[in-house]
Design brief:
By secondary structure, the chain is of the alpha+beta class. The protein contains eleven helices and 25 strands. Strands 15, 16, 19, 20, 22, 23 and 24 form a seven-stranded mixed beta sheet that branches. The radius of gyration is 26 Å and the shape is elongated.
Length: 510
């Protein structure tokens, strides 16, 4: 198992952006994409949106794994965001650049003119990117309030917010955090916030930090002899903790349990027909097998015993020929485990002639099946096991309401769900379950505790290298695993060399 060489955080700012809005300035956001092969780009991260600004300095850092031995092609795109949708296709493109991560990390400051298309200048605007290696995984948690601030607005009170800056080696100040704006309040209490210590002060407790809020008003100080200040900013609490990574958990002993669910509904077509999605071509493959191989070959490295349960759903199975939505591919319900990914492939090939493809397409039974094991693991109270369910399917889901509930329930468990859609069907329901457009909710309105579903249509990867599919479908699993254990407050079973550090600060003043 290869570990990441290092992680790098990228700071982004722009100057003189195009103004696409009528009556106001653009509301820019920057998205970072990485070359996924075959002409495809996979989104890695995105900054916050800044309202009415043509010279944005984005506060959120873009984080990327850096491999010295790889040429990592990146694309930075700047958009004018005019709605709340996650999709950027309906937003105005203000320009972007393509470069390699090596170019960025080898430059102290990397500045380029924005382009509307590769090689075609946007006519206006530049982007500046600086990189810093993440060496410190600690997080600083702060709670801050202010009292008796100046009234700055004509028709109301001030709308205060905070900006924190750290001083870099060149002596200039770099934005590290921008708080939310609290409207019409001279005694604001900002929400608790967390910033990586590396981002906040480079991990150096002796580095100066500048807080941008004018609590000393120079003119008032000159005019009034008894002037003290224009308000006080008070730190209510400060705590520093170690932030554990995916590798910390895996190398600390967390087992990844991989389960496969295969769609055997009649809409796939007769497996004997070359038109069927289950038809095994002369070279021994079909889209189902490619999906299982692509994802399984990566996940199997994180499971020591290499025994993977595999199930089918939507078929009539012998001897009763009743429709089943969670039958073992090896026809052994008491021991549905297959030896390695090859074992899953062998079981799939052997079962195809023995079952009758039928329907409907129900997902909830197989999700609930894996969730029962995840729930049992949860009771152990340690970061010992995490479950990944791969569902390969050809089309519309029949039990959408039950599946929504099953996913909402599973979101509270150490579990992720990957759905690969094969064939040319309409996958709108799958995209809905993915939750990228907003938090998935059950029929009763209960929201998912975490985003645990990743959906990818196979057709986007037909002509791409096989590893491109696995990279896309597994991209969200590490952060889903980390977010679950962070939510539970569970450290890795075996702690990394740097132990957790906690500092509880007494209330103080800035």
């Amino acid at each position: 198992m290869a570990a990441c060489v290092s992680r790098v955080e990228l700071s982004v700012s722009c100057r003189s952006l195009l103004d696409r809005d009528l009556g106001s300035r653009s509301d820019p956001l920057c998205v970072l994409l990485q070359d996924a092969g075959g002409g495809r780009w996979a989104e890695l991260d995105r900054t916050e949106k800044i309202k009415n600004c043509q010279d944005p300095e984005f506060c959120k850092k873009l984080v990327v794994d850096y491999y010295f031995e790889k040429v990592q092609k990146l694309k930075f795109g700047v958009y004018d965001i005019d709605n709340e949708s996650f999709d950027l296709n309906d937003d105005d493109y203000l320009g972007g650049i393509e470069c390699t991560l090596g170019q960025v990390v080898s430059s102290s400051v990397f500045t380029r003119p924005l382009e509307l298309k590769q090689g075609k200048p946007a006519g206006k605007g530049t982007i500046t990117i600086s990189a810093e290696e993440i060496k410190d995984t600690r997080i600083v948690h702060l709670e801050i309030e202010a009292q008796n601030l100046d009234k700055k607005d004509v028709f109301g009170k001030s709308d205060p917010f905070l900006e924190f800056y750290k001083q870099n080696d060149a002596g200039t100040w770099q934005l590290t955090y921008r708080s939310e704006v609290i409207k019409n309040n001279l005694n604001p209490c900002w929400r608790k916030f967390s910033v990586p210590l590396q981002t906040f002060c480079g991990g150096d407790f002796n580095k100066p930090i500048k807080v941008e809020y004018e609590c000393i008003h120079p003119e008032k100080k000159q005019k009034k002899k008894n002037y003290k200040n224009s308000g006080i900013i008070r730190i209510k609490s400060c705590k520093i903790e170690t932030e554990y990574s995916f590798l910390d958990y895996v190398m600390g002993g967390c087992q990844i349990n991989f389960t496969v669910g295969v769609d055997f509904t009649a809409s796939n077509g007769d497996p004997k027909s070359p038109d069927s999605l289950h038809y095994i071509s002369p070279d021994g493959i079909n889209e189902y097998l490619i999906a299982i191989w692509s994802v399984g070959s990566v996940v199997q490295d994180y499971d020591t015993d290499k025994l993977f349960p595999a199930f089918g759903f939507g078929a009539q199975v012998p001897p009763s020929w009743q429709v089943s939505h969670e039958f073992a591919l090896n026809f052994n319900p008491s021991n549905p485990y297959c030896q390695g990914i090859q074992g899953i492939v062998d079981a799939y090939r052997q079962i195809l002639p023995q079952i009758r493809l039928y329907g409907p397409t129900n997902f909830s039974p197989i999700i609930n099946h894996v969730a029962r094991f995840a729930a049992h693991s949860l009771q152990q109270g340690t970061a010992a096991q995490y479950f990944i369910l791969l569902i390969v399917t050809d089309g519309e889901i029949t039990d959408l309401d039950q599946t929504r509930q099953a996913i909402v329930n599973a979101s509270k468990l150490p579990m992720s769900i990957i759905i690969v859609g094969v064939g040319e069907a309409d996958f709108k329901a799958m995209e809905f379950l993915d939750g990228d457009g907003g938090v998935l909710k059950s029929v009763t309105g209960e929201p998912a505790a975490r985003d645990i579903v990743q959906f990818v249509p196979f057709r986007q990867f037909k002509n791409a290298p096989r590893e491109a599919l696995s990279q896309m479908v597994l991209a969200e699993v590490p952060k889903q695993l980390v977010s679950f254990y962070k939510w539970q407050g569970w450290p890795p079973l075996k702690l990394p060399e740097i132990k957790a550090t906690q500092i509880q600060a007494s209330p103080g003043y800035l």
